[in-house]
Amino acid sequence: MQPTQDVNIASYCERIGVNFNNVYLLNRALTHRSYLNEHPDVQEDNERLEFLGDAVLDFLVGAWLYNHFPEMAEGELTRLRSALVRTEQLADFARNIELGSVLHLGKGEEENGGRRRPAMLCAAFESLIGALYLDSGIASVQAFIEPLLINAVKQILLDRKEHDPKSDFQEWAQAQGYNPPVYKVVSASGPDHDRTYEVEVWVDNRLFGRGCGSSKRIATKAAAQAALNQIGVKQS
């Protein structure tokens, strides 16, 4: 048994411009695993849809960039795609469509601010994309995601966010003739809903930087930025 679609969900879909033929798919996309623990009649969470949505987004964002930036080199396209599908950006997409307001969460997750956490919002957005793909096909996902991409890519190009510290530090290491940087998770603390990771970055057995964050990706980025600061390299 799945959660039933209520008036709020129906009006939400209308507001963001999507139409689901299969209500169960939509409800599964909105169901976090914490909800299952408290509702034994609900059988599926959104994690498999998250996996699918991640793959669909990678393809669609790559294709969109390829078609809209015909003169851009492969390396730039790769960096720009990474900026558009990173956790923080997908969480921003989720906030733009107020996705957190319609998620099915367990009481503990709710009380601990799950509707606002970037990792939760990112996963939910990917799940929504996966569900929309299964329900209506790639064209529907494309129509839904493209307006979000247009707005985001303008800001990313303006701020040059596609040049992430990890890529810049790797380019520096290669230019110096060093081996590629190695990132090591040295600690993980806190409850599952609010983890803090500490990551170190090493090059040829030398520690260059250390960073912390709410996900391994964020901590890795912080470590790379710390390394760039240490060697005095400004991001391009």
Q: How would you describe what is shown here?
A:
The structure is a single chain. The chain is mainly α. The chain folds into 2 domains: 7-159, Ribonuclease iii, N-terminal Endonuclease Domain, Chain A (Orthogonal Bundle); 165-231, Double Stranded RNA Binding Domain (2-Layer Sandwich). The protein has 11 helices and 3 strands, in the order ααααααααααβββα. The chain has helices spanning 7-16, 23-29, 33-38, 47-68, 74-85, 87-96, 107-111, 118-136, 138-159, 165-175, 216-231; strands spanning 182-189, 196-203, 206-213. It has a 3-stranded antiparallel beta sheet, covered by helices on one side. Mean pLDDT is 88; it is low at 1-7.
Q: What is the secondary structure topology, with strand pairs?
A:
Layout (H helix, E strand, L loop, with lengths): L6 H10 L6 H7 L3 H6 L8 H22 L5 H12 L1 H10 L10 H5 L6 H19 L1 H22 L5 H11 L6 E8 L6 E8 L2 E8 L2 H16 L5
Antiparallel strand pairs: 1-2, 2-3
Q: In summary, what is this structure?
A:
This protein is mostly helical.
What class do helices, strands and sheet pairing give? mainly alpha
N-to-C series of helices and strands:
HHHHHHHHHHEEEH
Q: Could you name the CATH homologous superfamily of the largest domain?
A: Ribonuclease III domain
Stretches where pLDDT is under 50 for at least 5 consecutive residues are: 1-7
Write down the Rg: 20 Å
Number of extended strands: 3
Mean pLDDT across the residues is 88
Walk across the major sheet and give the strand order: 1-2-3
Amino- and carboxy-terminal Cα gap: 52 Å
Q: Which range best describes the helical content: under 10%, 10-25%, 25-40%, 40-55%, 55-70% or over 70%?
A: 55-70%
**Overall number of structural domains:** 2
Instruction: Summarize the biggest pleated sheet.
Output: 3 strands, antiparallel
Shape: globular
CATH class of the largest domain: Mainly Alpha
Query: Strand fraction band?
Result: 5-15%
CATH architecture of the largest domain: Orthogonal Bundle
Summed up, the helix count is 11
